[in-house]
Amino acid sequence: MLNDELRELYQDIILDHQQDPRNFGPMENPTHHAEGFNPLCGDRIQLSLQMDGDEIQHVKFSGSGCAISTASASMMTEALTGKTRDEAEALSQGFRDLLTGQLPNAEDADAAGLGKLRVLAGVQQFPVRVKCATLAWHTLEAALHGQPNTPIRTESINPTEVRKVK
Amino acid sequence: MFDSEEQNSMETLVSPLKNTKFDVDAIRRDFPILASRIHGHPLVYLDNAATTQKPQAVIDAIVDYYTSTNANIHRGVHQLSVDATRMHDIARAKVKSFVNADDIAEIIFVRGATEGINLVASTFGKQQVGPGDEVVITAMEHHSNIVPWQVLCEQQGATLRVAPIDDRGQLLWDEFEQLVGERTKLVAVGHVSNALGTVNPIRDIVDLAHRHGAAVIVDGAQAAAHMTVDVQELGCDFYVLSGHKLYGPTGIGVLYGKRELLESMPPYQTGGDMISSVTFEKTTYNTLPHKFEAGTPDIAGAIGLGAAIDYLRQLDWPAVCAHEEELLTHATDALLSISGVRLIGTADEKRAVLSFVVEGAHPHDIGTILDHEGIAVRTGHHCAQPVMERFGIPATTRISLGLYNTRDEIDAAVEAVGKVKEVFRC
Lengths: 166, 426
Hints:
The complex is a heterodimer. By secondary structure, chain A is an alpha+beta fold.
C-alpha cells in the first residue's frame, strides 16, 4: 500500500482532476495567452484567458503533463473564473506560498482564499515536484503580463535552445 | 613491459570460452551504497545509464591517492610528484588497454563523453568541416551528440543531416546509406542509445563513412559498461566515454582518437602542460596526449577510473554480459506482462536500457511512486528530446541496468509499477 505522504500527494480530488481535467481544450479568440514548459519532465501547458476589462470571464488550458501539473492547472482554471486581475495575482502568490511552506496552518490558507487548492499542499513533501504544481501558475503570470510569445520555463535554460547560447 | 601485461589481461577479459558462474551477491558487497535504505526500503538502483555506483576499490583508490600521493604531475623532481605522475600514466595505460587503442598517445583524458565530443567538434570539426559540407548523426542521439554538431554546422556554414530510425528504434540503414556521401565530412553516432538501448552497427557505419572519406566519432557513454569496446576492431576515428558510467568517478572521461588525426588537429584549450616551449613570439605544442590536456588534470579522477577498469577486469566479463542480458530479457517480459505498458525501443540488439510508458500514468508520477518504494529510475526525455518526438511521447520511465542488479530488484520495480496502476486506476 501507499504510505501517508503519497496518499496525501495523490488524493482523490487530484486524481479526479487529472483524469477529467476541467476547462480543457483550445479557446477561440483569447484576450490573454501564454505557454509554459517544464524541461525537466517535458510538461507543456497552453493557457488562454478571456478577460472583460479587469475580470477573468473564461480560462482554458491544454497540453500534456503529469498528474500534479494537470490537476493543478485544472483546479486553477476553476479558481480563476470570475476573479479580477488583482484577485488572480493574490491567489497566485497565495498558492506559491502554500507550496513553499509559508502557510503552515489551515487558517492561513483559508485567509489566502485558496479553498480546495489546499489539497495540493501535499506537494511540499516532494520538493522535486513543486515545479509541476506551479507550472500553470507561472504561465498565468506570463499571460497576465502579456508575454504571449515567450514560453515561460521552470528552468532558466531550455535544452533545446542551448544552441542559441554563444 | 607494462603494455604486454595489460594486453594479456585484456585477452582474458574478452575470452568467450570462460563462463564461470556469476555471483551477484558477492559483487553487491563490493558496492557500499547498495546497502542503503531509501524511504524505509532497500535501495533498488536502476538508474545506471545516468550514472553507475562505485565499488569500494574505486573509492579507496581516490582516498589513497589523496591520503598518500597527492602532488601535481609532470612538475616536480620531488618524490610525490614523480609517484603521482606515474599513477596518472598507469591509469592512461589501463584505459588504452581497456579500449584496445594502439598507443597511449591516443588516449586523451577529458571531463566526460560530452567534453570529448566538444573537443572533436572544436578542433577536427572546425578544421575539416567547411561551407557546403555535411555532418551526419542519427535520430537516436543524446543531446550531447546533437548540439555540438548543430553549433559547428551553424558556424561553418555546413549542414546537419539526421538519419531516421524505425518504430523499434533501429537505424534505417537504406536511408542512412543515402545520407552519407561525398559532402559528408563526419559521422557522429552513439554506440548504444541511452533512451532506447539500441546497439548501432558501428563497424558497418565506419566502413560506409570511410568509403566516402568521412571520419566517424562514436559516443560510447552507454556502451563501455555493457560490452567489450575494441576501437581497432570498430575502426572508428574517435571514441568517447564517461568514467562515471563505467563504475568510476564523475569528472573524468576519455577521448580516443587515431594518432595521425590527433597529430594534425589544433589544440582544444591552451595553457600549461600542453606546451613544449613558450616565448612571447611563439609557442610549440607538447606531444600527444598532452597537447590536448591543458592545465592540471583531474588526477584523482583518472586514478579512480583506472581502479574501475581494474575492478571490471578481475570479473568474468562474459558472465557479466550474460547476467545483464538475462536481466534485460526478464525485465522486458515482466514489464510487457503488465497491461497498458508499452516499451519504447525494441531493437533486435539492445543493452541494459528499458524505456517504457504506462497508459494513464505520467512518467513523472511513476518516478515519484517508485522512489517511495526505494526504487531509483529516471523519468523524462533522457536528454533525447528528438527521440521522444519520434515516438510521439513527452517522456518515458527508464529502467537501466548495471552488473550488480538482480532479478528480485526487477521484480520489485515491476510490482511498484503495479501500484502505480492502482493509484491511477489505469
